[in-house]
Design brief:
With about 140 residues, this protein is an all-beta fold. A hairpin with a 5-residue loop joins β2 and β3. The chain has no helices and nine strands. The strands form two sheets. Strands 5-6-7-9-8 form a five-stranded mixed beta barrel. Strands 1, 2, 3 and 4 form a four-stranded antiparallel β-sheet that branches.
């Protein structure tokens, strides 16, 4: 799990990605930035943690048909299952966030402009010792879990 990238205290309905916002120029960063404002036009300000929008629109998508190399956790003895990557535009933050689609969602289920929401996800079910999520996934709003 990447500490500080999301919050999940109250379950899926309150699950949010966490970024930071510069108090001087209002630029939002994800992954979060805790040292300095990355906006080259900004003189710098304090960085405050902010939850990102829960919903966004599909900006682009593709499928991953290969087993990624380490540090991705994958059992080489298990047959490879393709996964779907989704780039989601968050209008309020004026940014695009990349992530996997929920398991079972393929490129055939997506379209540019489709509304999606962020939900908790799991990278490696076998290595988990806690009840919390280890990553985030994007789920089409019309698809229920």
């Amino acid at each position: 799990m990447v500490a500080g990238w999301f919050t999940h205290d109250s379950g899926e309905e309150d699950f949010r990605l966490l970024g930071t916002r510069c108090t001087a120029c209002s630029s939002v960063f994800f992954p979060r930035e805790d040292t300095f404002c990355r906006n080259p036009a900004c003189g710098g300000g304090e960085l405050a943690e902010v939850p990102l929008s829960k919903r966004g629109r599909v900006w682009s998508y593709t499928d991953g048909r290969y087993r990624p190399p380490a540090p991705y956790v994958s059992d080489p003895g298990t047959p490879w299952e393709p996964y779907t990557l989704v780039a989601v535009e968050l209008a309020a933050e004026r940014m695009v966030v990349l992530g996997q689609a929920v398991p079972g969602v393929t490129v055939a289920d997506l379209a540019v402009g489709m509304e999606v929401e962020v939900v908790p996800g799991v990278l490696d079910e076998g290595a988990r010792t806690d009840p919390g999520p280890t990553t985030w996934h994007w789920r089409p709003v019309a698809v229920s879990s």
